[in-house]
Write a structure and sequence with these properties.
By secondary structure, this protein is of the alpha/beta class. It is built from 12 helices and 15 strands. The longest helix has 27 residues. It is globular and about 60 Å long.
């Protein structure tokens, strides 16, 4: 039977979810053939430590509230409850950045919002994306049929590319600290991007999901630490890595009220109002219980516990980095980021190295080819495993090289 419905044919231009499905296939085949071998996974960017006690206690209290008629809550505000938005606002203030309450939108994660934000933009916008890149940026715009221009991120520029003044872009994706490379832009570099965006009437979509891993106080944790950014940028952040919310789902997006665009009919359109309209139409908000947990994560005690959690992962990153140092292997990230990105040894491509590492050391990482052309000869390891496994994995790694 032939359907009369017309589908979005841009989906034909998407690659299959080849990276992680292929990793899962190869690991499953190896473990089936080698059931006596202990495989250590340092590939997935998922946390392994449990939620902190401050968060859990707050969520338990919220559950009890939901079981009592006098404190029960039904539909909440799509933008997030004020108690959480105020906590986020205070968090920005502590980091030296001022944002207003109605510029903050609570969501179920940065991944959702970096994809959904494209609802606000016409399909004839030109999108500038660094390569290598978090695949969601590419796939979302491919689904919508936009033209994508790639910017080379490579060892020569420290995987921190700057704009090419000869290239015009309307939408710019920047992730810092970067997934997958772990590289972090400094203030001077981000100022160049902001100036470029203002000159080109472009909008920067700034993914700061890993900002809590920045310990160098000279590095910006928000694009809004840069003069002029509120006229050209939207910021996405997440509690997934800040407080271990990967399975709890809570993030937030900051859309400045100063961000505006003149429409073809001459009318001024404010992006903050547009995003608010989009969310109130297509999003029902984050559960009250989760938002109470998120509020607790931003408290003094919650932040102290979160920093201990992040410190644990950063120690894992140091274990990985120290091993690479001893083997004289050049790498990026691992200091202000949970990811370590290094060139595959012996001129191997990333999939060949994946198989070599799995077969000879039973360690799983992520082939850089899955993040773009410039990742073909690079490999990503993550610090989100437990410490004992990380130590064992790098001991095995060291014996190979």
């Amino acid at each position: 039977m032939k359907s009369l419905a017309k589908l979005n044919e841009n989906y034909q231009n998407l690659k299959e979810s080849y990276l992680f499905s292929e990793i899962a296939h190869r690991v499953a085949k190896y473990t089936q053939e080698n059931p006596d071998k202990k495989v250590i996974r340092l590939g997935i960017g998922d946390v392994t430590l449990p939620l902190e006690s401050e968060v859990v206690d707050s969520m338990h209290k919220a559950v009890d509230e939901m079981g009592n008629a006098s404190s029960f809550r039904g539909y909440g505000p799509e933008q997030g409850y004020d108690f959480l938005r105020n906590a986020i606002k205070d968090y920005y203030t502590r980091n030296g950045v001022s944002v207003e309450l109605d510029e903050i939108f609570v969501s179920d994660g940065a991944k959702s919002d970096t994809g959904n934000i494209t609802d606000l933009f016409s399909v004839d916008n030109v999108v500038l994306i660094p390569d290598p890149v978090y695949p969601v940026y590419v796939d979302t715009n491919t689904m919508n049929g936009r033209k994508i221009v790639y910017l080379d991120a490579n060892a020569e520029n420290g995987f921190l590319p700057l704009p090419d003044e000869s290239v015009h872009a309307d939408i710019i994706y920047i992730c810092s600290p970067n997934n997958p490379t772990g590289a972090v832009y400094n203030k001077e570099q981000l100022k160049i991007w902001v100036d470029y965006a203002l000159k080109n009437d472009a909008i920067i979509l700034f993914d700061s999901a890993y900002e809590a891993f920045i310990s160098d106080e000279s590095l910006p944790r928000s694009i809004f630490a840069i003069e002029g950014a509120k006229q050209c940028a939207i910021e996405f952040c997440s509690l997934s890595k800040t407080a271990g919310f990967t399975g709890t789902r809570c993030g937030y997006t900051v859309v400045p009220k100063d961000l505006k665009v003149t429409a073809s009919n001459g009318e001024v359109m404010y992006v903050n109002k547009m995003w608010n309209r989009r969310q109130t139409t297509k999003f029902n908000g984050v559960p009250y219980i989760v938002q109470r947990g998120a509020e607790a994560a931003f408290s003094k005690e919650g932040m102290e516990q979160a920093q201990k959690m992040i410190g644990y992962y950063k120690e894992n990153a140091k274990i990985i980095a120290d091993t690479l140092d001893k083997k004289n292997m050049k790498y990026f990230g691992g200091v202000n980021s949970p990811y370590i990105w290094f060139e595959c040894p012996n001129n191997m491509d990333s999939w060949t190295f994946f198989d070599y590492l799995l077969t000879n050391a039973q360690v799983v990482g992520t082939p850089g080819a899955g993040f773009g052309t410039n990742g073909t000869n690079y490999f990503r390891l993550t610090s989100f495993g437990n410490k004992e496994n990380t130590i064992e994995a790098m001991e095995r790694f060291a014996k190979l090289f």
